[in-house]
Amino acid sequence: MDTLEKDLHFLAEELGARLPQTDAEKRAAEYVTNRLSSSLDEAHGIDFDAIGNYRLFFAAYFAEFIVVGLMALWWPTPAFFYGLVIFLVYIAEFMGYPILSSFLPHYASSSAMGQSKTHDAACTIVFTAFLDTSDNPFSRIEARFAKYYLHYGIILCMLFVLVTCGIDALGAFRGQVNPYTEGMRWIGIGLFTLIAAAGFLRALFINQNRGANSNASGVTALLHLADLLQENPIKNSVVLFYAAGSHHANMEGMRTLLTENPHMAENTYVINIESIGAGQLCYTKTEGMLQQMPCDPELLAAAKMHSKKFHALPTTLNNRCSNAYLPLIHNIPALSILRLGKDGLPAHFGKSSDICKNIDLEAVRDAALFAECIGREVVKRHIKIPGFDEND
Questions:
Q1: pTM across the whole model
Q2: Which domain holds residue 163?
Q3: Which of 189, 204, 219 is the last residue of a domain?
Q4: Is-contact 12 364, C-beta < 8 A?
Q5: Which of 2, 83, 195, 331 has the most crowded CB, counting CB atoms within 10 A?
Q6: Rounded to whole angstroms, how far apart are CA atoms 154 and 150?
Q7: pLDDT of 123-173, one tens digit each?
Q8: Residue 249 contacts by C-beta under 8 Å, 6 or more apart in sequence?
Q9: Whether residues 151 and 85 fall in one domain
Q10: Which residues contact 186 (CB under 8 A, 6 or more apart)?
Q11: Residue 285, number of CB atoms within 10 A of its CB
Q12: Strands (E), 105-195
């Protein structure tokens, strides 16, 4: 437990808040790189650029729908098409595809990667955990509301405004006036004024917590896994360990990994570890806030096989994006391991109490062992039995 405690203490106590694109995040990536280099064949840092205040960017989308509603008072047809473009771009951005955000100012960020190779590799296992902490002061409130389809409500508000614009655009083409759309549109403008105001407040205020559970615990488990596999490697596989920076800046760390490895989907399995310092051990069966994406059947079968031993339960993650979200979007087999409280959130999520003394190191160790068992089980399914020919 000495190494576990040392890793957790450095990340959560000595460094404290590891906000995206900060010196603390960079130092965390350097620490993880150095730790991985002592256990693996190869380890290096990855430098990349990530968008600054991503929450401010989303607040601007909400404000644009105020503009759309006001435009429609005089020019409903242009307002409809402009609003439709904004809506589609918003959906793409929310689903993890950078459109307009790729043109905004970006700042330096860091991740850490290590690799262990064996001969005759049948597949690649990627163990990953995000490195940074969130500075969102309303993360806990958002996660609670997101569980009850907050983002579906926002999209319905957008569609509400677009429908009123479309009705008036059609009326202008036919020379007709609908007596109800103006009042409906003002309701939409009022709703988006509140949503945008909340979005800008969310972007301007900063909360700094030490992130011991979210996600120093996951990174600590990642390092523990590297130590375990140094002693007992997973044969017939390439094993990657990836501590992703700027997860809270549009998941840019994971996006960088996928961009630099475009063929990763072939015989690759991603096992994400996060917030495993306290609570009920779980593994995800589906993930996604707008669209629920099923996790890989092979990973799920492996998790189910070992779930009884670790008292792990299947769960659905629909109130935030994990580090497995982008791989799932890109059709890469993935699954998350995490611990949840009775409220469906990680312990101390978004609270100042997210500190080392509230972390159960035994829970961290068990989650790491659970991830190891899943990885080994998946690799077994890819090892060709000598003398066996599938065509016989």
A1: 0.87
A2: 56-102+141-204
A3: 204
A4: no
A5: 83
A6: 7
A7: 899 999 999 988 766 666 666 665 556 677 788 888 888 888 888 888 777
A8: 20, 21, 50, 51, 52, 54, 109, 132
A9: yes
A10: 69
A11: 20
A12: 106-116, 123-130
